[in-house]
Each structure stands twice: as C-alpha cells, then as structure tokens.
C-alpha cells in the first residue's frame, strides 16, 4: 500500500493568510486619510466604490485613465529596506499622466506582488501610496496584496497602480491647442523620479559604489539620493488650470524616453520646439551618473529627466502668472524655449526628436550646453 502523502497546508506552500490580514490592519489608518467625499464603503470590500453622481456637474464629462509601476527603483528600496517612499513614485507615475490631458484624477487602486508578506513592509508601501494620494487629492479606494512564493524571492516585491479621472470635453489639453509662438516652460523634478533605474543601477554596480557611500556632490549617501521620491505635480497643476485667467495649451509628464520624446507627444505635426540647455543646470545626480558610467549625452537625455519633471506649453502672456503660481508651491520653473512653425525653422543644429511612442507629433530640438553647477 503506497505511503500516505504528507498533508500540505496553504502556509506550508508559502502563503501566510494571517500576515496578509495583519498588513491590512496596519494600513487602515493611512488609507482612511486618502479619501474623498464621493467614496462609498470602506477598506476590505471586493471593489472600491465611487459616487458617479459627482460627474453630473459636467456638461460633457470625459473619463481619463492611466496605469503604471515604478520599474526597478523597487530594487533600491529593497536593498535599503526602506519602503515608505516608493508609494510616492507609484502615485506620481499614474496620476501625473492623467493631469496631462487636464483631467482631475478621482480615485486609484494599487497592486503589490511579493514573495512573502511582511506586514510592516506592506503597510509602509501602502502608507506611502496613501500619503501621496492625499497630497494629490485622489482617493485610494482599494488594492490587492498577492503573495507569490516560488515566483518571487522572500524579500522581493513589485508595485503597480491604476487611476481614473475626469475632464470637461472642451477643456481637454493637447496638441490641437498648441500654436507657434507658445512658450515651453520647464518644471523642476525632485531628482531621478522613477525612470532610468536600470541604467543607473548598471552604472553604480560597474563602478562598485555601495548605496551607503557618501557622495560629496550629492551632499548625502548614494542610496538616499536614489530613493528620493517622485514629485507629485497633480494638485498644483490642477489649481493652476483652474486659476482665473490661466491659460495652458498642453502639459507633458517627463518619464521614460526623456524630455524631448515626451514633449514631442503633445505637439502637433508641423511644429518645432527648440529648447536651450543653457536655461537650466541639471542636478548633480545626473552629471554624477553620466560621468561615473561614461554615459553618452544622447543616452542620458533619452533615459533620464535631466532635472525636468514636467513641461507646460502656454501662450507668452500666461507665462508670468504660471511661474508665480508654481513658484509659490515650491516648484522651480524656467522658460526653456518656444514652439515655432517647422517650415520656418530651416536647418537645425541640435539633437532633434520627431514624435514618440507611436504619436505623429511635432519636433523637439535640444541645443546649447548646460551651465556648470
């Protein structure tokens, strides 16, 4: 008679249901702060609910949605065992894409996959997500934590999120509003944000630099710099769009692909934006990575934001008011260049990007050199 198989429980298979329940208990308070009046129900339901009657005030509401993750930046959080900032990266990557079209993000959900649920770690990640949602005035209406033993290592995890927003049909921002003569305004990033970390980690590994290494140019350790959370622009930009007399024609979130490619996506065909590098000095982290890995400038500019987290395209008469508004919110701004009719530009002397990510957009040319720090 064959031997009886050893009884295998879910816990023996590597899934700790009790740890998952504890993680939910630990995150409850932070999630409660990331809400809006339209949210129905509470944490723990099968679905998050949002009162759609709030859309009745719109004449022609258009829904906008976005989903994203934070890429390999999570490897830095895991290496440093610090998980409270990665949520800002996730929220910024998702909701700041929605505000590009002028929409107000309303609610967000998150998804965390991990090799093993450590309740305190999961709660720290969700706490950061909730704090960033509250800052962006977005409700965190639900989420999921999935334990994947055997697929992910015990200390490994990844995060993703999705959000939905709304905008009035005749208020949608985009290429159709942009005109020759418009000004290109740069908005400062907080650092690397959440793109290009595969390049950054390769450079750091090749150089043999430890994350706890103090870097004089950065004024802190390498790990502290690399884990700087993504700036979340949504609330500040929405307030700008709603300000009396404000006029913005297009916005661009500078993420994967860099400055030129992302700006080209929101320019109409037949236009040409010339941006002068001499108008800003990239923060030290960008020059440090470039020097440490002998990274060609073209690769740096196509991979990292180079200190520009967002771009606004607006008429010249609206520039001063926009700069005053954003500066009052602690966001550095500067005029980078202008949009022209491509037919009038003639020969170009810089690096030109035409369209990006399947969009038949305008052209963006980078000229000049950055001033020294």
UniProtKB/TrEMBL annotation:
Entry protein name: Phosphoribosylformylglycinamidine cyclo-ligase
PANTHER family in alphabetical order: TRIFUNCTIONAL PURINE BIOSYNTHETIC PROTEIN ADENOSINE-3, TRIFUNCTIONAL PURINE BIOSYNTHETIC PROTEIN ADENOSINE-3-RELATED
Main location: cytoplasm
An annotated GO cellular component: cytosol
GO molecular function: ATP binding; phosphoribosylamine-glycine ligase activity; phosphoribosylformylglycinamidine cyclo-ligase activity
Sequence similarity: Belongs to the AIR synthase family.
Gene3D superfamilies reported in the protein's UniProt record: PurM-like C-terminal domain, PurM-like, N-terminal domain
Keyword terms, alphabetized: ATP-binding, Cytoplasm, Ligase, Nucleotide-binding, Purine biosynthesis
Record has Nucleotidyltransferase as a keyword: no
Enzyme class (EC, first level): ligase
GO BP terms in the entry: 'de novo' IMP biosynthetic process; adenine biosynthetic process
Domain PurM-like N-terminal: residue ranges: 60-167
Stored InterPro entries: PurM-like_C_dom, PurM-like_C_sf, PurM-like_N, PurM-like_N_sf, PurM_cligase
UniProt subcellular location: Cytoplasm
Xref: Pfam families: AIRS, AIRS_C
Enzyme Commission number(s): 6.3.3.1
Pathway(s) of this molecule: Purine metabolism; IMP biosynthesis via de novo pathway; 5-amino-1-(5-phospho-D-ribosyl)imidazole from N(2)-formyl-N(1)-(5-phospho-D-ribosyl)glycinamide: step 2/2
Organism phylogeny: Bacteria, Bacillati, Actinomycetota, Actinomycetes, Micrococcales
Span of domain PurM-like C-terminal: 179-343
UniProt key word Nucleotide-binding: yes
Gene name for this UniProt entry: purM
Catalytic activity: 2-formamido-N(1)-(5-O-phospho-beta-D-ribosyl)acetamidine + ATP = 5-amino-1-(5-phospho-beta-D-ribosyl)imidazole + ADP + phosphate + H(+)
